[in-house]
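Changelog entry

Holo records now carry the ligand SMILES as an explicit input line rather than a separate metadata file. Below, a converted record for pyridoxal-5'-phosphate, shown in the new format.
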Amino acid sequence: MEKETIWSVILKNHFPNSYLEIDLDAISKNLEAIKQRVPNKKVLAVVKCNAYSHGVVNVAKHIQEQVDWFAVANVDEAIELRRASITKPVLVFGVPTYETAAAYQTHNLTATVSHLTHFSILMDGTDYHLNFDTGMGRLGFSPEQVKEVRQQAVLNQRLTCSGIYSHYATADDPGSELVQKQADRFSDLIKQFEEIPLKHISNTGAATNYNTDHYDMIRTGLGLLGYNPGQTRHKWLKPALTWKSKVAQVRPVKRGDTVSYGATWRCPEDGYLATIPVGYGDGIPRSLSNKLQVSINGKLYSQVGNVTMDYIMVYLKGDKISTDADVTLLGGEALNAADWSELAGTNVHEILTNLKGRFEREYLNF
Ligand SMILES: *Cc1c(COP(=O)(O)O)cnc(C)c1O
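Structure line, unchanged by the conversion:
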């Protein structure tokens, strides 16, 4: 944590209601654990969407020496990395446009070519990876286009092709037939591109759940942050993020009282109610209403009533906890993002990227 100077105390004009504690050392260790699972492969760290809310600049700086590549979703995110003195290659997954073409060149970014028009859009000297759609149904050439893509790649010597990749749709699930199908399609089509140095297809799920060919490099986002996608949880990954807040108010609550919008919860027994100053505006899914538990002074308590934009309420039963008590909302002693995703019926990625609220980030092992 940065030391506060007397001036920053006097001039403080930022009073966050909660903070994210991000353990950079845990991220480094997750990386090493993943590398052990896929020995002798290069590693591309996927740090799109502000490193899934972990704060892209500090995360990328911390792991820069441990990884070979970075990837982000769009050019703006890539420029942010370059401005933060990240010098490793940066792959942009998104599509290049006439508007962004110059930025690839200026900032030395690697483009993704996933449509024939992209060959003409990119400027001389731009580095790129080819993207083939083997079953994801999102971006990329169809395997039937192999011949014309190869032709364009050969014709466009003004560009540099440094890689070819594809993306799995179902690698979260350890026994998926589609993964095998996509792997076969990829292994077939890359036969036409043997001279391309970097071939890659595996995301975190593929790298942790499958022993298929990972080719030259794996791409991991969620894994770095200590989670596996899908149902399988791996003990060797440690969540790096903990979300904390403080109790804003504690009040008595009487048997029969209802709490929050819609009055969906009725108090079963006289006791105390804590109000915590975080809500769906900060990233707590409203669908977790009456399902969530948070940790106060090391003990789990039930969140009750509907999650509101700025607050959640927690039933303390008979415990008269003091105002200002520390609350762990996510990670640490509380439920983690995998628990939240199961309760909310979504994936871990969405839980993490939704944390874009009104908090401060504090980095451990900076
Ligand atoms: C987001 C993304 C990844 C990373 O996925 P994780 O499940 O976080 O490992 C890899 N490749 C592509 C193309 C992506 O869009």
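Spot-checked after migration. Residues 107 and 292 are 44 Å apart (CA to CA). The radius of gyration is 23 Å.
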